[in-house]
Amino acid sequence: MNIRKLVSTCHSHPILPIIKHPLTRAQQFSIQPEPPNRPQGLSILATNLIKSYFEKRMLKEARKLFDEIPERDVVAWTAMISGYTFIGHYSQAWMVFLEMTREGMYPNAFTVSSVLKACKGMESCSCGAMVHGLALKHGMEGCMYVENSLMDMYATCSVSMEDACMVFQHIHAKNAVSWTTMISGYTHRGDGHGGLRVFQRMLQEEVELNPFSCSIAIRACSSIGFLSFGKQIHAAVVKHGFESILPVANSIVDMYCRCNSFSEANQYFYEMPHRDLITWNTLIAGFEKSDSSVSLYIFSLMGTEGLSPNCFTLTSVTAACANLAVLNCGQQVHGGIVRRGHEGNSALANALIDMYAKCGIIADSRRIFDQMPRRDLVSWTSMMIGYGTHGNGRETVGLFKEMVVSGIRPDRIVFMAVLSACSHTGLVDEGLKYFKSMVVDYCFTPNQEIYGCVVDLLGRAGRVEEAYELIVMMPFEPNESVWGALLGACKAHRHPNLGRLAAQKILDLRPNMAETCVILSNIFAADGKWGEFAKMRKLMRGMGIKKETGRSWIEVKNQVYSFVVGDKVGSHIELVYGWLEMLVQHMKEAGYVPDLDCLLRD
DNA sequence: GTACCTATAC
Fold it and tell me: Which windows of the sequence hold PPR repeats (predicted)?
């Protein structure tokens, strides 16, 4: 729209903001009235309109209007920068800022706080530091908005909290935003303890609580599983009357879920007078990890409040289907994703890759993976884990190479996926090569989980002594999962002495590991050490240790059937035994000799 | 006329 035409059409324009400073009576009746479209007035009008355009995501219109303003002042420039920041186009905001400085326009405090938010969005500490220098040059140290945005930028982008702390220390009159920014800085970089330390200092200095600081402090409690402190903040929230503020209430639901207090999460959820989509998503995501079938049930109730699922909901629901390996249900969710046009969402596509892999349809995982316009680290990892669990280690290794070529740097989890895939495919030397490359080429220090993978890699292939040697050479004390990998290998390849050692180490670390006791007693039995076998069993009975029964389930024609060893009841049991006999027959024909040692069970 | 901090997903 042409700026000159703007004034004549302003009355009919649907999104034109109200003019707050109309002409005075004197101006209206002066003999020589000022022209109604003088530059400054137009600039104010245009700035208002630019903001409205951004709010309605009309970017081209905003830029066109901005380009047509004859004399653009700092406010118009700032409106452009904050507009691009508002919609998440941070690099664009930065470009406008550079353009502005090139034209010799000085930024004000509004500009600086907006552009710092853009630096935060770009995760660019160097750009942020440049703006910091500029802010000092223009004497903005005293401005609260500038100081708080600087802190937030450093807290998000800098390697440590040191820079943010430095800014924080120099603020004379810290306000509530300053405190909240520090708490969130620590919490969002995974240091919940650090966040709570700042929160407690805030309380000591008698700063009034506000909804922002409460919800982030609750988040800090969730992240470290500090339920008792979370409950105290919950009480403070009730006392201050913040419960009606949804982000606060939602963070409380999240806290109870993450601290595994599911009955409290559920109760709080149902007692909430108002719930929004995020409340539902929080509960669905919370239950997805602990009890996926409950998660699906909650999802089925969402419609009763007239809410429609978004990407977050569907990601959790897809993950729940993956955990339960319910293909039919997962396919229905996939249909819903396509129907709602969410196919382009990477997080959702990653969840679908995992779901199809866990439901046994690796070809569908691959189809989704291939159709993704942009694959992130998680996409590659999910696909590689999928191939690994299907025993297709060569595909995993191939994908790893492709991923590196595409410019994505692997992390520890990717290496674990490769090592585990090699282990399940018997690619021992290939796996060892990747273990070496991880340390030498990528400078990762192996942790317990990685050592566990390598022990499993060697052990599964029967190289049990080498696996033990690796454990001995570990630079730190191996945990029970590393010993567990060795124990599994000892059991499979009959190394009773090493097996006893591994089992003993696990029981030293965790005396109540029922599975370990069972395996150890089985090792004694297989070795003919019946006296020790009996002693072990007696010990287990005395300690009240009971192995949790392994339950299997299968989905047939939209119905889930579950069963345990020795099941006698259920309409489907006869069918199961029928199939079992047929499979045993097939195995015999294929020449398989069953290992009867493992039939000793509790 | 323009600005800072809070909640959900792989």
Answer: 73-107, 175-209, 376-410
Q: Are A556 and A594 in a shared domain?
A: yes
Mean pLDDT over A549-564 rounds to: 73
- Chain B bases closer than 7 A to any CB of the protein: 1-10
Whether A179 is covered by a domain: the verdict is no
Cα separation, A165 vs A188, in Å, equals 15
Q: What is the CA radius of gyration of chain A?
A: 31
pLDDT at A397 over 50: yes
User: Taking the CA of residue A320 as centre, how many other CA atoms within 13 Å lie in the half-sphere pointing to its CB?
Assistant: 27
pLDDT digits (tens, 9 = 90+) for A486-541: 998 998 898 888 888 898 888 888 887 777 778 778 777 877 888 888 887 887 77
**Which nucleotide is closest to A249, CA to C1'?**
B7
Instruction: Tally the domains of chain A.
Output: 2
SS (H, E, C) A49-80: HHHHHHHCCCHHHHHHHHHHCCCCCHHHHHHH
Based on the fold, state whether residues A453 and A542 are members of the same structural domain. Answer: yes
pLDDT at A437 exceeding the cut of 90? yes
- 3-state secondary structure (DSSP) of residue A215: helix
Nearest to A173 by CA among A212, A221, A141: A141
Distance, CA of A434 to C1' of B3, in Å: 50
Helix A311-324 and helix A277-290: axis angle, to 10°?
Answer: 20
Distance CA A334 to C1' B6 in A: 32
Pick the closest to residue A212 from A175, A241, A246, A180 (CA basis).
Answer: A180
- Stated in angstroms, how far is A372 CA from B6 C1'? 33
Q: Are the C-beta atoms of residues A467 and A478 closer than 8 Å to each other?
A: no
Asked whether the predicted pLDDT for residue A584 surpasses 90, the reply is: no
The CB density around residue A330, as the number of other CB atoms within 10 Å, is: 26
Distance CA A195, CA A215 (A): 12
Residues A544, A449 share a domain: yes
Residue nearest to nucleotide B7 (CA to C1'): A247
What's the CA angle centered on A289, arms A284 and A295, to 5 degrees?
A: 30
Higher pLDDT pick, A521 / A370: A370
